[in-house]
Amino acid sequence: MQWLFYNEGIMTYAHSVSEAAEKIGVSPDTIRRWEKKGLIRAKRNEFNHRLFDLSEVHSVNQKISCSEHSGNFKVLKTNRRKKFTTIELFAGAGGTALGFENAGFEHVVLIENDKHAVATLQLNRPKWNVLCQDVREVDFSEYEADVIQAGFPCQSFSYAGKKMGFEDIRGTLFFEFARSIKQVRPKVIIGENVRGLLMHDDGKTLETILNVLRELGYRVVYRVLRSQYFDVPQKRERLIIMGVRDDLDYPFVFPKEKSYIVSLKDALKDCPPSDGQEYPKRKKKILELIPPGGYWRDLPLDLQKEYMGKSFYMGGGKTGMARRLSWDEPSLTLTCSPAQKQTERCHPDETRPLNVREYARIQTFPDKWEFAGSTAARYKQIGNAVPVNLGYHIGRCVAAMLSGEVDGKTMEVVELSSDQKQGVLF
Questions:
Q1: Count of domains in the chain?
Q2: 154 is catalytic
Q3: Active-site annotation holder among 132, 154, 271, 336
């Protein structure tokens, strides 16, 4: 039996695990394992049964099959330099900035107020114009650029009695992104955030963001990009908001997902040595019992209760706890610390957290990209970054929009209907 769902405004059909397994030619346990590992997402019907999008299951099966001996890991870079320019807010340690540079862009200015991240940017790119400054203090009217890009923090807005236009979002960091757009008037704008922004405050926050960008004179669309299908050895989803100035007839272009994934084995091959966190003696002894790809449920019952504490009796899958990564898959999403109990990132073979250089590899930073600050500060910078290769793919698409040179094999042009041009969410 098929079930009809609406996902981000798109109608899809979903099937039970047994139906999906039969149609694709894999076992139901394989589909359940893919779900547990974050490769696919289950939906729920009114009976709370798990249902799966058949096209997504087929896509994952194909990509895993194509990646058994892939050797696909590399930091992507174009040989063609563009004349396009970009301004970046909340630049962090440079994941998006390096990705855009690798796609051929030149940076007009990068703004970041974390001293360690600024030191990282200056250490690796001394010629970049990096401002160590609170974005609220920057006058953008002195700059010109083709693109403004910002991974702005998602903040809750107050809706009571307000229309939530440009003037009503003062005090939020998104306002600073909007203010920079108003002062510079770039051709294209890119906003980046976590997938959770889709449902933040029942979708009101995203609706406000889109409406403000439209008020500023931009046509806007958004899409969730899954990093594991864009040359990144990591299951990391990012919401990309893209805008084009109303007076320009540029198409919206997004990257097409690849037909392969990059495994952790490919990513960490010959990774240079590095410092990193260590486990306490008792925790290490318990985690030694976890197999690659396993987690706390692989422990004996008494150790499950010891390790989990009160969490053992709480609901939810808690699949990040006591989690050891697997060589043959992308990593789980990196956090600011690989040894957090809720989001464990244990090395596949050695019983230790991933080290700093392994973290950087998984985020597709080149080995020569150095990070400033303490070990904790470096983990934080890397964990907060947009993967460099994801930034590269987005940058290539933006360059294609500006130049009109769209590669139909690797890019997808998004057409807007008349309703969408008038403000209906994409």
A1: 3
A2: yes
A3: 154
